[in-house]
Amino acid sequence: MSLKAYKRGSTWWAKGRIEFEGRPISEYLRFSTGAPTETGAQEVIADYTQREIRRHLVGEEASFTWDDAIVLYDAKPNEAKFLIRIHEELTGKLISAIHPQTVRDLCPKLYPTASTDTWKRQVITPVSAVINNAHNLGKCPPIRIKGFTSAQRIAQDEARGRQSRPKTTPGDWQWINQLSEAANPYVQAGVEFMFETGCRIGQLVAVRPQDTDLKNRRVWIIAQKGHPAQWVTISSDMMITLANLPPRKPKNRKTGVILPLRVFGYANRTGFTSALRTACKNAGIDYRTPHAAGRHGFYTELRVRQGLDPITAAAMGRWSKADLPDSVYAHSEADEGSVREAIRTNRVQRKHRGKVTALKKK
User: Fold this and answer.
1) Range of the domain at 94
2) Domain identity same for 184 and 280
């Protein structure tokens, strides 16, 4: 008996076997279609039957679809919102028909005014994750999708009339001291903590009273970006700052729920960032993101301003490789005009030394 729909309670179910050319090609099946109507159930049965017949004819791998792959993927909330839009475009497609260029072409269709960095983050990365997860489960071949070239990034920036990857201005003590004129104690302490330790905003707002060990001058920070949770040593000044900073219970503005105590007073990065932006405006200084003020500022302070070696600076910021932070987080602060003048000065000095040498020879 081929698959038939029948009602069970308020939902329609299916029972029977998948048949092809009058012969059963599956075991006896019984499953819920999830449909509240018979018409919906028939559509589910028809789709399922077609997929099973295709699998019977060409094999598991060749018949594997995007829909099959996405069911196997446990998406995080941030990924899910991107995958919803992607699924509308790829539903029903065979994985074997989804090529790297297919995915790249999808980027401007879904986000015409976004940067190529956004395309990679919101389209290329989620699609790769879904397909490669299915590959790890033995369902299909893997996929490798290259990002976009510098020329493509520039062309997209011109098309949308906005530059991507704006220059990052790292935090420094002058900016932090100016911030103190308008920031509340929690924002001020938070910025100084990130600048001193190189921690991320997500790690900062997660710190609870029980995560501090002021007697031994250390704070426990959560795992993030592939780095394990660990104790981070703090300075004596930071120890005093935290000792005088009473933890407070942040409030969820959407639900009104009072949340557990946080050392830096905010439950999430949004609340902290908003308060930081307001403080910068009130202090009359340029706004710098928590990442720029903290992690970028931390590394630039050590490498550029203090001249610390790259291996030690990377280790202090918990980077696994020393070459990465040097290429991303170290920002030159040299004055271009002074550099050009120094080059000319060197030329004059060499000319003078040449004349002196010639006179000595005579």
Assistant:
1) 66-160
2) yes
